[in-house]
Amino acid sequence: MRENLPKHGLQLQSTLDADGALTIRLANVEVFHPGPGEVLIRIEAAPINPSDMMTMMPAADPALAQVSGSARAPSLTLRLSREAADARGGRFGQPLAIGLEGAGTVIAAGDGSEHLLGQRVAALTLSRGMFAQYATISAAACTPLPEDVSAREGAGLFCNPLTALAIAETVRLEGKGALIHTAAASNLGQMLVKICAEDGIQLVNVVRRPEQADLLRSLGATHIVNSSEPGFEEALLAAAIDTGALIAFDAVGGGTMPGMLLKAMEDAARTRMTRYGPYGSEELKQVYVYGQLDRSPTVLRNEHYGLFDLRHWAMPSTLARVGPVRAAEMQQRVIDGIKTTFASDFSEEISLGQMLDPVVVRGYAGMATGRKYLINPTL
User: Fold this and answer.
1) What's the pLDDT tens digit per position in 223-240?
2) Residue 115 falls inside a structural domain
3) Residue 112 zone, left/alpha/beta (φ > 0; ψ -120 to 50; rest)
4) What is the crossing angle of helices 210-218 and 187-199, to 10°?
5) Most confident residue range from 58-67, 324-333, 365-374
6) At residue 226, what are phi and psi to the nearest 5 degrees?
7) Are 181 and 140 in a shared domain?
8) Structural domain for 214, as ranges
9) Are 205 and 221 in contact (CB under 8 A)?
10) Closest listed residue to residue 241, CA positions, set 278, 300, 283
C-alpha cells in the first residue's frame, strides 16, 4: 500500500545553466507510486558508464569541480566553455536525472506488473535516473535476474554487454569476419575478446599500456597492439594484414586514431590488390566511433584511404536494426553468461553521497581501465 512506501528519496541530478555553470547535486525527490505497467525499484547497485558521464558533466573538467551548496545539501559546480554550453542549449535549466542502468528489488507494482513484485531486476532507462535510491519505471524496461545473481552482478546487464554483442553483430551484418577495437582493455573490451573467441571473429585489440596487453593475453587474445609504443602503426598494419579487418570500432573518438585505423586497413587492403588503382583500394573500410574518451576534434591526415566510411555508432540503433526477436536472443545470452563472458569487475563501490566528493569524482570521471565504479545507494 502507498502508506508503506517511501515518499521521498535521493536522486543525482545535473543542471546546466545558460552561462555555462554546471551543478550536480543530490535532490530529495518525490517517490511516485507506479501506475499501470510500471514498477517501483529500490536500487541497490548502479554502474558508472561513459554514457552516464556524457550527461552528468559534458565537456567539463572534473579536476576543476568545486563543492558548493550547504553542509546539509552539498553540490558540485563545474563550468563549461561558452561554445560547449551553447551546443547543449536544449537542456538549460533542466535538472536531468543521471544513470542509465542498475539493479534492485521491486517494492511496488502497478496494474499488469504484479508478477515482478518482490523480484530482483536489472533495469535500463534512457530517461535516466538510476543513480538514486528509488526509481519508478516501465516494467518493460526491467529484466528479472536469476535467484543466484546479486544486484551487484546484474547491475551492468545492459550497456557494456549489449554494446559488445552489438559490435559483433554489426561485423556479421556487414558480412565481415574481423575487426579492430580501441580501448580494448576496458570492461567492454574484455567482454568483446570472449565474444569473438566464442563466435569465431578475429579481433585486433588496441591498448595503451603493457599491463593491459598482459590482461588481454590472459583472456586468450592473440592480436594486441600498443598505441604508446614505437612502431605502433607498423604493428597495427601487420595485424590488419593478418586478420583482413576492414571494420574498426573506436571508443576514443577524437584526435588521429580514426585516421590511423583507416590508413592501416587501407594499406592492408592494398597488399591484396592485383592491379593499380589511382583512388586506392575499392574494399570499403569502416570506422565506427562510439566513444568520447578524446574530446578533441577528429583529424584525418589527407591520406589515401581508398573507399572509406567514418560514422558515429550506437548500440540502440543496431538492436533496432536486428529486430526484437534477435535483440531478445542477445539479451538472453547476456543473462546466461552474466557470471562468465559478461561479468563486470568493479574496483570501487561508493555511496550516492560520495558521488559529490571531488576526489572521488576525479576517480570515476577518469574512466581509467581497471577502475570501474559501482554506486550502492543503500550505503
Assistant:
1) 999 999 999 999 999 999
2) yes
3) left
4) 40
5) 324-333
6) -105, 115
7) no
8) 162-319
9) yes
10) 283
Same-domain check for residues 197 and 95? no
Residue with cell 559501482: 374
Q: What is the DSSP letter of 141?
A: G
Tell whether the model's pLDDT for residue 6 goes beyond 60.
yes
Same structural domain for residues 91 and 197? Answer: no
Say whether both 92 and 183 belong to one domain. Answer: no
The DSSP code for 103 is E
Neighbours of 239 (CB within 10 A): 23
Q: How many domains does the chain have?
A: 2
Q: For 277, left (φ over 0), alpha (ψ -120 to 50), or beta?
A: beta
Question: Do residues 195 and 165 lie in contact, with contact meaning Cβ atoms separated by under 8 Å?
Answer: yes
Which DSSP helix (H) or strand (E) runs through 371?
A: none
List the Cα angle 225/226/227 in 5-degree steps: 115
Q: Of all helices (H) and strands (E), which one includes residue 289? A: strand 285-289
Question: Cell 578475429 identifies what position?
Answer: 202
Please give the Cα distance from 37 to 166 (Å, whole number): 28
Query: pLDDT digits over 26-82, tens only?
Result: 999 999 999 999 999 999 999 999 889 989 998 888 889 888 887 778 899 999 999
Percent of the chain with pLDDT over 90: 83
Element (H, E) at 5: none
Provide the sign of the torsion angle of the four alpha carbons 237, 243, 245, 248, taken in this order.
negative
Q: Are 15 and 27 in contact (CB under 8 A)?
A: no
For the chain, the C-alpha Rg in angstroms (whole number) is 22
